[in-house]
Protein backbone atom coordinates (compact mmCIF):
# COMPACT_ATOMS: atom_id res chain seq x y z
CA UNK A 1 0.00 0.00 0.00
CA UNK A 2 2.83 2.43 0.80
CA UNK A 3 4.56 1.70 -2.50
CA UNK A 4 1.35 2.31 -4.46
CA UNK A 5 0.78 5.54 -2.53
CA UNK A 6 4.34 6.71 -3.25
CA UNK A 7 4.12 5.89 -6.95
CA UNK A 8 0.58 7.09 -7.72
CA UNK A 9 -0.31 9.49 -4.88
CA UNK A 10 -3.48 7.41 -4.45
CA UNK A 11 -4.67 5.16 -1.69
CA UNK A 12 -5.88 1.72 -2.68
CA UNK A 13 -7.74 -0.15 0.06
CA UNK A 14 -7.38 -3.58 -1.50
CA UNK A 15 -4.12 -4.75 -3.01
CA UNK A 16 -2.52 -8.05 -3.86
CA UNK A 17 0.01 -9.97 -1.82
CA UNK A 18 2.57 -10.41 -4.58
CA UNK A 19 6.15 -9.41 -5.23
CA UNK A 20 6.67 -6.58 -7.74
CA UNK A 21 9.50 -4.41 -9.02
CA UNK A 22 8.59 -0.81 -9.86
CA UNK A 23 10.60 2.01 -11.44
CA UNK A 24 9.85 5.66 -10.72
CA UNK A 25 11.50 8.98 -11.58
CA UNK A 26 11.41 11.76 -9.03
CA UNK A 27 13.07 15.18 -8.89
CA UNK A 28 14.77 15.85 -5.55
CA UNK A 29 16.62 19.12 -4.97
CA UNK A 30 16.70 19.73 -8.73
CA UNK A 31 18.19 16.32 -9.49
CA UNK A 32 16.38 13.57 -11.34
CA UNK A 33 16.43 10.37 -9.25
CA UNK A 34 15.45 6.96 -10.63
CA UNK A 35 14.02 4.64 -7.98
CA UNK A 36 13.78 0.89 -8.47
CA UNK A 37 11.52 -0.52 -5.77
CA UNK A 38 11.41 -4.25 -5.07
CA UNK A 39 8.21 -4.62 -3.05
CA UNK A 40 8.04 -7.92 -1.18
CA UNK A 41 5.12 -8.84 1.09
CA UNK A 42 6.33 -10.25 4.38
CA UNK A 43 4.19 -13.39 4.20
CA UNK A 44 5.87 -14.41 0.95
CA UNK A 45 9.34 -13.52 2.18
CA UNK A 46 9.03 -15.75 5.23
CA UNK A 47 8.19 -18.81 3.16
CA UNK A 48 11.10 -18.46 0.72
CA UNK A 49 14.63 -19.74 0.88
CA UNK A 50 17.22 -17.52 2.55
CA UNK A 51 19.11 -17.27 -0.77
CA UNK A 52 16.18 -15.40 -2.36
CA UNK A 53 16.15 -12.91 0.49
CA UNK A 54 19.91 -12.49 0.25
CA UNK A 55 19.59 -11.86 -3.50
CA UNK A 56 17.16 -9.00 -2.77
CA UNK A 57 19.49 -7.59 -0.14
CA UNK A 58 22.45 -7.59 -2.51
CA UNK A 59 20.31 -5.91 -5.19
CA UNK A 60 19.22 -3.01 -2.97
CA UNK A 61 21.04 0.15 -1.91
CA UNK A 62 18.65 1.01 0.93
CA UNK A 63 15.75 -0.54 2.80
CA UNK A 64 12.34 0.48 4.11
CA UNK A 65 10.91 -2.10 6.50
CA UNK A 66 7.21 -1.65 7.23
CA UNK A 67 5.23 -3.04 10.14
CA UNK A 68 1.63 -2.55 11.19
CA UNK A 69 1.12 -0.77 14.51
CA UNK A 70 -1.86 -3.14 14.89
CA UNK A 71 0.24 -6.32 14.47
CA UNK A 72 2.86 -7.15 17.11
CA UNK A 73 4.28 -10.05 15.05
CA UNK A 74 5.12 -7.75 12.13
CA UNK A 75 7.08 -5.55 14.56
CA UNK A 76 8.80 -8.41 16.36
CA UNK A 77 10.48 -9.78 13.21
CA UNK A 78 12.22 -6.47 12.44
CA UNK A 79 15.36 -6.90 14.59
CA UNK A 80 16.22 -10.22 12.94
CA UNK A 81 15.59 -8.83 9.45
CA UNK A 82 17.72 -5.75 10.14
CA UNK A 83 20.56 -7.86 11.54
CA UNK A 84 20.39 -10.07 8.44
CA UNK A 85 20.51 -7.02 6.14
CA UNK A 86 23.41 -5.43 8.00
CA UNK A 87 25.40 -8.66 8.07
CA UNK A 88 24.94 -9.11 4.32
CA UNK A 89 25.54 -5.49 3.28
CA UNK A 90 27.89 -4.00 5.85
CA UNK A 91 29.99 -7.13 6.06
CA UNK A 92 31.18 -6.40 2.52
CA UNK A 93 32.07 -2.74 3.06
CA UNK A 94 32.58 -0.14 5.74
CA UNK A 95 29.58 1.91 4.56
CA UNK A 96 26.46 2.04 6.70
CA UNK A 97 23.42 0.68 4.88
CA UNK A 98 20.43 3.09 4.98
CA UNK A 99 17.49 1.42 6.74
CA UNK A 100 14.22 3.07 7.71
CA UNK A 101 11.58 1.46 9.92
CA UNK A 102 8.03 2.57 9.14
CA UNK A 103 5.07 1.96 11.43
CA UNK A 104 2.00 1.86 9.20
CA UNK A 105 -1.72 2.33 9.97
CA UNK A 106 -1.24 5.22 12.38
CA UNK A 107 -4.85 6.21 11.65
CA UNK A 108 -5.98 3.00 13.38
CA UNK A 109 -4.83 4.24 16.80
CA UNK A 110 -7.76 2.46 18.48
CA UNK A 111 -6.28 -0.88 17.34
CA UNK A 112 -2.66 0.00 18.19
CA UNK A 113 -0.61 -2.73 19.90
CA UNK A 114 2.86 -1.31 19.18
CA UNK A 115 3.52 2.11 20.70
CA UNK A 116 5.34 4.90 18.87
CA UNK A 117 7.94 4.84 21.62
CA UNK A 118 8.67 1.14 20.97
CA UNK A 119 9.22 1.90 17.29
CA UNK A 120 11.50 4.85 18.04
CA UNK A 121 13.52 2.86 20.58
CA UNK A 122 13.96 -0.06 18.20
CA UNK A 123 15.12 2.26 15.43
CA UNK A 124 17.51 4.02 17.80
CA UNK A 125 18.96 0.75 19.11
CA UNK A 126 19.53 -0.56 15.56
CA UNK A 127 20.76 2.77 14.12
CA UNK A 128 17.83 3.14 11.70
CA UNK A 129 15.49 5.94 10.74
CA UNK A 130 11.92 5.84 12.02
CA UNK A 131 8.54 7.15 10.86
CA UNK A 132 4.89 6.42 11.49
CA UNK A 133 2.40 6.90 8.66
CA UNK A 134 -1.22 6.26 7.75
UniProtKB/TrEMBL annotation:
<dbReference type="InterPro" id="IPR001806">
    <property type="entry name" value="Small_GTPase"/>
</dbReference>
<dbReference type="GO" id="GO:0005525">
    <property type="term" value="F:GTP binding"/>
</dbReference>
<keyword id="KW-0342">GTP-binding</keyword>
<keyword id="KW-0547">Nucleotide-binding</keyword>
<protein>
    <recommendedName>
        <fullName>small monomeric GTPase</fullName>
        <ecNumber>3.6.5.2</ecNumber>
    </recommendedName>
</protein>
<comment type="similarity">
    <text>Belongs to the small GTPase superfamily. Ras family.</text>
</comment>
<dbReference type="InterPro" id="IPR027417">
    <property type="entry name" value="P-loop_NTPase"/>
</dbReference>
<dbReference type="GO" id="GO:0003925">
    <property type="term" value="F:G protein activity"/>
</dbReference>
<keyword id="KW-0378">Hydrolase</keyword>
<dbReference type="InterPro" id="IPR051065">
    <property type="entry name" value="Ras-related_GTPase"/>
</dbReference>
<dbReference type="Pfam" id="PF00071">
    <property type="entry name" value="Ras"/>
</dbReference>
Amino acid sequence: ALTVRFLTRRFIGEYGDMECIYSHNLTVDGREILFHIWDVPNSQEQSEEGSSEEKRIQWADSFVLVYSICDRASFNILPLKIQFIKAAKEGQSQEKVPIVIVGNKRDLHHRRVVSSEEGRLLALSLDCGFYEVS
